[in-house]
Design brief:
- This protein is mainly α.
- Strands 1-4 form a two-stranded antiparallel ribbon. It has a two-stranded antiparallel sheet with strand order 2-3.
- It starts with 13 loop residues before the first helix and ends in a 22-residue tail after the last helix.
Length: 328
C-alpha cells in the first residue's frame, strides 16, 4: 500500500495536477458495495446512527472525522484505536481527547442485530466519517469497503505515526509520505479542520507566558486580532477541558472557509499556518480558498486514499463482535 510521495512546486494547472496525483488510488483489496449481499442495509444503518447522534450532539461530526485520522495513521485503518485496555492506543495522551467512540459502538450494536459477525468496526469508522462530512454540508462520496479489524493496539505506536499540530512542513510531508499520501493530500486533508474543536493546549506553543503570568503572541504568522481572541478564550487559568473552534468563521459547516482563514492568517495550529507560508503549498491553498467545488471534488479523492491506508482484508485480522475488544 505504501508508496513514495512526489513533492512538487505546483508548476502546472491545478486541474491537471490533481488528475496526475489522484488517478486510480483506491486499494485493490477494497471494493464498492462490499456488503451488498451480506448486509445490504449496512451503510444506511451507519448513516442513520451518525445522523441521529449529530442531531443530539453537534460536535459529533468533527469527532468522527478526527477519529478516522487517528485510527488510520496508526496500524492502518483497522479500528485499532477502538480497542480498550492498558497501553492501547487510547491511553496515549494524544488520543485521550479523541471522541466519537460511542457512535461507532452504537452502529455496531445495530449491525450485530441485523447482520451478526459481518460488518467490521474499521468499515464503520470510515463510513461514519464519510457521512459526518455530508451531514454538515460537505460532499457525499462513495467509499470502498471490506476492511477487517486489527488485533494489535499499542500506545508506543502512536507518537511515531501521528501528525502533531506543532509539526513543521518537512515533518508533516515525511509522516504523510510513509502512509502513501502526497503533498496535495496533506493540503486537502488538512481541510478537515473546517469543522471540530481543539483544546487550548494544542496551540499554546504559539504564545508565551512571562514570569508574571502574562501571555503574549510569539508566532507572528498569526493574525494579531485572532490571537487576542484566542488568548481571551484560553487564559492560563483555563480548565484543560476548554476548547475553541478550529474554524472561527463557519465552525459547524464543512466548507472551504478553512483555506480562506489561512489567507487571513487565521489558521489555529502552526501546522495550518505553515501551509500558507511554504512555497510548495501556498498556490494550492489559494486555489482551494477560491473554489469550494475544487475542494469538494478533491476531498473525496484524498479521503479515499486516507481510508485505504494499511487496510487489512481477506484473512487478515477479524470481524470484531464488539469494537472495544478483540474476539479472543
Amino acid at each position: 500500500m505504501e508508496k513514495r510521495a512526489v513533492f512538487f512546486l505546483f508548476p502546472v494547472a491545478v486541474s491537471s495536477l490533481f488528475i496526475f496525483f489522484f488517478g486510480a488510488s483506491v486499494s485493490a483489496s477494497l471494493v464498492f458495495d462490499f456488503y451488498a449481499a451480506s448486509c445490504p442495509t449496512a451503510e444506511l444503518i451507519v448513516r442513520n446512527t451518525v445522523s441521529s447522534s449529530s442531531s443530539s450532539d453537534p460536535s459529533i461530526p468533527g469527532k468522527l472525522l478526527r477519529l478516522v485520522f487517528h485510527d488510520c495513521f496508526v496500524e492502518g485503518c483497522d479500528a485499532s484505536l477502538m480497542l480498550q485496555g492498558n497501553n492501547t492506543e487510547q491511553s496515549d495522551p494524544a488520543n485521550r481527547s479523541v471522541g466519537g467512540f460511542s457512535v461507532i459502538e452504537s452502529a455496531k450494536r445495530v449491525l450485530e442485530t441485523f447482520c451478526p459477525g459481518t460488518v467490521s468496526c474499521a468499515d464503520i469508522i470510515a463510513l461514519a466519517a464519510r457521512d459526518a462530512v455530508e451531514i454538515v454540508g460537505g460532499p457525499m462520496i462513495p467509499i470502498s469497503t471490506g476492511r477487517r479489524d486489527g488485533m494489535v493496539s499499542l500506545a508506543s505506536n502512536v507518537r511515531p505515526n501521528i501528525v502533531d499540530t506543532s509539526f513543521p512542513m518537512d515533518d508533516m510531508i515525511n509522516r504523510f509520505s510513509t502512509k502513501g499520501l502526497s503533498l496535495a493530500d496533506l493540503v486537502i486533508l488538512s481541510g478537515a479542520h473546517t469543522i471540530g474543536t481543539a483544546h487550548c493546549s494544542s496551540f499554546r506553543g504559539r504564545f508565551q507566558e512571562d514570569s508574571k503570568g502574562k501571555v503574549t503572541l510569539i508566532d507572528k504568522t498569526l493574525d494579531s486580532s485572532y490571537a487576542d481572541e484566542l488568548m481571551k478564550k484560553c487564559p492560563i487559568s483555563a480548565s484543560p477541558f476548554v476548547t475553541v473552534n478550529n474554524d472561527p468563521e463557519t465552525s459547524m459547516v464543512f466548507d472551504n472557509q478553512y483555506y480562506r482563514n489561512l489567507l487571513n492568517n487565521k489558521g489555529l495550529f502552526q501546522s495550518d499556518s505553515v501551509l500558507l507560508i511554504d512555497d510548495r503549498t501556498r498556490k494550492l491553498v489559494e486555489d482551494l480558498a477560491n473554489d469550494q467545488d475544487l475542494f469538494f471534488e478533491n476531498w473525496g479523492q484524498s479521503f479515499l486514499k486516507l481510508t485505504s491506508v494499511g487496510v487489512k482484508t481477506g484473512d487478515e485480522g477479524e470481524i470484531r463482535l464488539s469494537c472495544s475488544a478483540t474476539n479472543a
